[in-house]
Design goal:
The protein is mainly alpha-helical and 126 residues long. It contains six helices and three strands; from the N terminus they run αααβααββα. It is 66% helix and 11% strand. A three-stranded antiparallel sheet has the order 1-3-2.
């Protein structure tokens, strides 16, 4: 598939399907949760400890969305006290290289973007 055809896929249904997915993975917490679960399964409280600033509510909501999308599995063990663990699915593992590439791009280009923002904001102030 050519680059042009790939770009056309983005514009396909006015980008609805891609926007929906991008909204999910580009939110504030999703990639942090996916990165934290990379190579290990964690209990809810362990996961929360590894992600500074995330509330219990946001962690629960985001994990629920990831479970619904097939990116995370939730395993409940019939024990006292109850134990629940979360881990990435094979589908989520296919997302990791792309997320890492995006993070690399952001780190590499952030200084340039910051300078453009500063120049733009300075132009607005004058």
């Amino acid at each position: 598939m050519s680059d042009y055809e790939k770009v056309c896929l983005i514009r396909g249904d006015q980008g609805k399907s891609i926007r929906s997915l991008m909204d999910r993975i580009a939110d504030k917490w999703t990639l942090l949760i996916i990165a934290t679960l990379h190579e290990r399964r964690l209990r809810f409280t362990e996961l929360q400890r590894h992600i500074p600033g995330i509330s219990q509510r946001m962690l629960a909501l985001t994990l629920g969305h990831l479970k619904r999308d097939g990116l995370v599995t939730r395993t409940a063990y019939a024990e006292v006290p109850p134990r629940v663990e979360y881990e990435l699915t094979p589908l989520a593992h296919t997302l990791l290289p792309h997320a890492i590439a995006l993070a690399d791009w952001a780190v590499e280009n952030n200084p340039t973007i910051d300078s453009h923002r500063a120049a733009h904001d300075e132009g607005l102030a004058t």
